[in-house]
């Protein structure tokens, strides 16, 4: 999982380049919400041979087929975010700097992963 911070008023697809940086292993599927439905993102995923699990925006003129079974897996991602927000420090963002906030997200993710491994 990769996390980064964008300004609150920034559209979701503008943060796509930060999350899909080249220094990580290449994913085979991108599960995202309608905020990532843009032609630029879809062309980038096609060029990288990534299967898009992104539903169309309702206002999209050029209709694109989407795999509903694949999109249902996004529930796993949403549950992960819910578990991260159970950590009070993440939910309320007590940290003043972005670096310390992202560090605590990493610590919370590691704690969740270790809990998952022990069950």
Q: What's the order of the H and E elements?
A: HEHEHHHH
Sheet with most strands: strand arrangement: 1-2
**Spans of at least 5 consecutive residues with low confidence:** none
The strand count comes to 2
Head-to-tail CA distance between termini: 20 Å
Strand content: 5-15%
Number of helices: 6
Overall radius of gyration: 16 Å
Mean pLDDT: 81
Main β-sheet description: 2 strands, parallel
How many domains would you count in the coordinates?
Answer: 2
What do you see in this structure?
The protein has 6 helices and 2 strands. The protein is mostly helical and 119 residues long. It folds into 2 domains: 1-71, no CATH class; 73-119, no CATH class. The relative contact order is 0.12.
List the helices and strands and how they pair.
Blueprint: H1 16-19, E1 29-31, H2 39-47, E2 51-53, H3 68-72, H4 74-85, H5 88-92, H6 98-118
Parallel strand pairs: 1-2
Put the structure in a nutshell.
With 119 residues, the chain is mainly alpha-helical. 47% of the residues lie in helices and 5% in strands. The protein has 2 domains: 71 residues, no CATH class; 47 residues, no CATH class.
Main features:
two-stranded parallel sheet; 6 helices; 2 domains; 5% strand; mainly alpha; 119 residues
């Amino acid at each position: 999982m990769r996390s980064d911070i964008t300004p609150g008023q920034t559209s979701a697809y503008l943060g796509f380049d930060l999350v899909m940086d080249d220094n990580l292993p290449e994913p085979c599927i991108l599960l995202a919400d309608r905020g990532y439905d843009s032609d630029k993102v879809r062309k980038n995923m096609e060029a990288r041979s990534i299967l898009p699990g992104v539903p169309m925006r309702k206002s999209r003129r050029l209709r694109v087929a989407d795999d509903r079974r694949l999109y249902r897996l996004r529930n796993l991602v949403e549950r992960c975010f819910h578990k991260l927000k159970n950590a009070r420090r993440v939910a309320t963002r007590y940290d003043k700097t972005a670096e310390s906030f992202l560090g605590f997200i990493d610590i919370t993710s590691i704690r969740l992963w270790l809990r998952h491994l022990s069950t």
